[in-house]
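thought: fold this chain, then report.
action: predict
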Amino acid sequence: MFNHHRTPSSSYKTVLPPQELLDDLCSRFVLNVPKEDLQSFERILFLVEYAHWYYEDNSVENNPSLKSLSLKEFTSLSVFNSCDVLKPYVAHIDDIFKDFTSYKVRVPVTGAIILDETFERCLLVKGWKGSSWSFPRGKKSKDEEDHACAVREVLEETGFDVSKLLNKNEFLEFNFGQQRVRLYIIAGVKDDTSFAPQTKKEISEIAWQRLDELQPSTDEVISRGITGLKLYMVSPFLASLKSWISSHQPPMAPRPDLPLKGICVWKAKHSSTGSSSTITDNQPTKSEPDPQPLDVGPGRSFRNFRFSTAPILQAMEASFS
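observation:
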């Protein structure tokens, strides 16, 4: 599927990226990595995904004629068609992507629950697509420590550095299917702190939301708070969070002067043509799907597939040289 946040004029963007551009992106994002990162389809597709983000966030925006591509289309056009050793696997791209999706939702996620000085509000971010809200968080990189991932992801999604406020022992953890999500509690952040994403097309809005307007998960309330906010990735943490708050003294007493509703502190701007753009000039980043169950259908045979890296590296280097 193509990105739905594109402008109406995107229907005229029908020119496929030239091979030179695809080769350049693959050289920059795929070839120049440690060889161990090219030992499975999953790792290769993670690298191709970085190249795809860059293509969508920079190449497509800078060239109005270029066609917006799905990750699957981009993968087929770039690495798999450019490298002779991988070309035979283009026919299996559906199975490979099913395994990749299954693999992604098992990668641990870390982030932060940012509380204001009264502990009455927490900071939530809304994804670029859809209307779901979540705490700022993201997937761990290879060999990355939990707290380091949390600092990196919060900085990317909100522009706020929590490194000096983070206590490695103060966190809440919940499992969504096979995915572990750990959120560090960052308490006592001033409500006038400036927030703005450092990434493109990942976050559309940042807001302080009142905790008393959010509801924990129950049989009846799974994904929405009192105000109608979609809280699938928030509500499972609320009971434990409110328990933590009840045992800790906030640095500031409740403030009746603040609005009773949530306070928006950053929102993406929209141009006169209807296209969306963030306020800051940022680096490419990702858009994550909601957690999904482990894929056990067609394609599972590829899950443990491994190949000899030497001939593939040699062929890829020859292709792009």
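thought: worth noting. The domain at 109-267 is CATH 3.90.79.10 (Nucleoside Triphosphate Pyrophosphohydrolase).
final: tokens above.
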